[in-house]
Amino acid sequence: MAIRLLYPTFRPTKESLRAVVADRVILVTGASHGIGKASARKLAAAGAVVLLVARSRPELEQLAADISADGGTAHAYTTDLTDMDAVDLLGRTLLAEYGHIDVVINNAGKSIRRPIAESYDRFHDFTRTIDINYLGPVRLLLTLLPDMRARKQGHIVNVSSWGVLMPPSPRWSAYGASKAAFDVWLRSVAVEIAGDHVTTTSVYMPLVHTRMSAPTDFGHLPGLTVDEASDLISHAVTAKPRDIAPWWAVRVQAWSDLHRNLVRRFLERRFHH
User: Which of 205, 202, 102 has the alpha carbon at shortest distance from 158?
Assistant: First the structure.
């Protein structure tokens, strides 16, 4: 109940979702598990042609087969988002095979929580996290955006985190910096492409109980289910709001900006060793 009050969810009707996505070509990254998998199923059930992207070939191909068995259309494209050449090739391949992409759902992500004292010899944590959460999506969109702008049509949905709107969290430096980087990039680009009728939606997700969050200590905290989170993605695709965020996020952000020193002192005491 608490999470419903803090973060109301939206569930488009099947009819409204089908009216928007039927026969549309929708690319979903991170489609083999969690939010991406659930979103792909819902979009395909509503008549979209769903292009599934992830590293996990067996899971991806099984999902495509399951969607096909249910009467939907989905195609699997195994790609490592840390390989920029492979990401560029993916974009060019999809344009060659389908002619265009109507919607991109940037859902793939890597989460890591580690104190800086345990990160001195783990630079690879930062490079891999920023590749998946920032550079990979940028590389893909640099390939797809010219066609969207030329067609005067396209929508980009970014699955972000409500933490991007909050003061930086200790121990989340690699994850927070990478998510914030893409968030700023997309909001900056959104202004440039709006005149070409290419729209963007940033979905600032709260905690979602997925495979990615399972290894953390947050299992007991209120959070969305994967199904509820995928409803937010469906809402983003149908309504195309500029952003979807907790109603209280702007208030907390404004308060923390006004009391920045107080917030910092609290965090320093909380995480002092």
Answer: 202
Distance CA 135, CA 82 (A): 8
Using one digit for the tens of pLDDT, what is the confidence trace for 30-68? 999 999 999 999 999 999 999 999 999 999 999 999 999
In angstroms, the Cα distances linking 178 to 5, 48, 110, 121 are: 29, 30, 9, 19
132 burial type by CB count under 10 A (0-12 exposed, 13-18 middle, 19+ buried): buried
Global confidence as pTM: 0.88
Q: What is the pLDDT of residue 60?
A: 97
The rounded mean pLDDT for the chain is 89
Q: What is the rounded (10 degree) CA torsion for 242, 248, 252, 255?
A: 100
Distance from C-alpha of 249 to C-alpha of 7, rounded to nearest angstrom: 10
Distance CA 106, CA 133 (A): 9
Q: Which residues are catalytic?
A: 175
**CA 157 to each of CA 41, 170, 243: distance values in angstroms, whole numbers, following the listed order:** 16, 27, 9
Cα distances from 228 to residues 2, 39, 183, in angstroms, run 14, 10, 22
Whether 29 contacts 54, CB under 8 Å: yes
Domains and CATH numbers, the chain: 2-270 (3.40.50.720)
Half-sphere exposure of 112 (CA within 13 A, CB side): 22
N-terminal to C-terminal alpha carbon distance within the chain: 35
